[in-house]
Amino acid sequence: MKENVPMKDGSRQLGSSTIPRFLFGLVVLAAPNGVKAEQPEVRHAGDASTVRIACFNVESLTVPDEWSRFAHFRFPPGRLRHLEGVAAVIEVVNPDVLVLSEVSSRESCDALVTLLREKELGDFQAYHVDGRDSYTGFDVAVISRLRPDRIEGKLIHLFAPDRTPKLRDVQQGTVPLPWTAERYTKSKQGGEDAEAIAVVKRHSVCFISVLGHKLGLVGLHLKSNPSDPEANAQRTAEAAIVQRIVQREIISRGYAPIILGDINDYDPDVEMADATRETQTSVLRMLKDYDPHQEGDELVNVASYISRVADRFSSHWDYNENGAADGDDVFTLIDHILIDQRFTVGIKRAFICHASSLDISDHFPVIVDIDLSAISSNR
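The structure assignment produced for this chain is given below.
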């Protein structure tokens, strides 16, 4: 993630008067969240019962004339190339459902799915919800051939307070702590501890019914930097909130949870390409064991089904910022797809698509193919 000079001050909305005609066409053509339609055919590997699920951090996907503090490209030509590059990667991945981290607006999602339709990849739709991260402006969105179920009038959900309560008010008992927030202790420089409140600012939840199965997808972009103690404390608190989201909003509705996205931490149970790094938290174990009252983990990391350990990396940190892969760079597995234990019998393939470059993103898509016909229905 690179910080660039903002194009202009103001909100995250587009200034339509200066949008190039090309992009304006993309935004207009994108379909809204409308009336429930016929469910598209799931079509992968010549098997209509297989669904392909993926996640991809697209490194601040923005459209021209959109204000962004952390834009991957500052000016319209670069932003249009970025859209084309991301669409080309998705064309290769060819998912049925894709969770996208670091999208900056609904408009960027709409422009992307329109490109995919122009490539005749199917009737993709974009499902976007504004997150609570006002600093980065990053959101987590879903693009999908499969239409989500409408739950409480919405096709995509965010479970976070509109405003995070002040710590002092919570400590004094004058304001209750929402179930979508978590108090935690962080270590500051100098060895002092301080209490704080965490919310999962960047996430989205979609409920999808397909081929007799009900899937509850929790798309995440958790706090970054797995080497920083303060960040690790916040991410652990975020994981505790995700556990509650899964149990209160997904399990209670009869859906099987799938947690996926940029989790920004390592799984101690999955060997990755960089053997020199280890997690300093319990984040992945908390997410896989979202119900500590039940014995064992409820979820499995699909990366454990990638047979070649050398392929188990999803992030490229260009340490010296020279735009190339070299000896000082860091390649780690911080993007994950965690699926219900019952679904492992249906895993046909799990892989990470490395057919990309730093010009498109510093992350790579993680993909899993699941044959739903091999799994008992949870309808």
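Interim note for the steering committee: The mean pLDDT is 88. The chain is about 20% helix and 25% strand.
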